[in-house]
Amino acid sequence: MPIRVGAQIQPQHADFAQMRDAWREAEGLGVDSIYTWDHFYPLNGDPDGKHFEGATALAALAADTERVKIGALVFCNSYRNPQLLANIHSTIDHLSGGRVILGIGAGWFERDYEEYGYEFGTAPERLRALRRDLPLLEARLARLNPPPVGEMPIMIGGGGEKVTLRLVAQHAQLWHTYGDPETYRHKAAVLAEHCARVGRDPATIERVIGTRGPVLEHADALADAGVDELTVAVSGAPTGYDLGELREVLQWRDGRG
Question: Structure pTM?
């Protein structure tokens, strides 16, 4: 199956109208998925620049698109009651006609916690909370009336080998992380070990991978290693969103056949 391309249109530094234009343009270009994120302040550029909230942005993304899968890379479990997060996603799934991916992770950006009054704690504490809350999220999804329209898979973000990848093996239909091909192959092998321990076929988990540098630098190697989807990060600016790299990656995808 051809590799997919996703675009993370980051909700920072641009106006909301410019972000909506970027979603529509990206869908028109042929991306397979469009993502937002779940932070309260920009992660690069002016630390106090414009920034929009993730769940509200996801609802608008659902209304502004027709075909693409949508979600966030990823919602922070620390900010969100897991049962409410399930309900929010299910409601947005109805708005989208069944296109939502429920992305979730343990959280890491300390300023978000400090500014909004959440306890940052330690990485092990945040991971324990995610381990505790994933079953609650799944149970609420099973009880909602009406249920989600689509399958609404769970995507867990992160690459921690002891806990995060074990949670991926236990709960996720998709796994999102960042890395070069060597890093990906190593972590995929660790994930396979966790899957073996819980009796799961690792091939049932789709791999959604981003890179910290130019995506095309590693695109062929990641695709050959079995990655299902490459994500392209697109930051906003006062002039809007530059989709130049996304266009190049889509041309590469289409050229692979």
Answer: 0.97
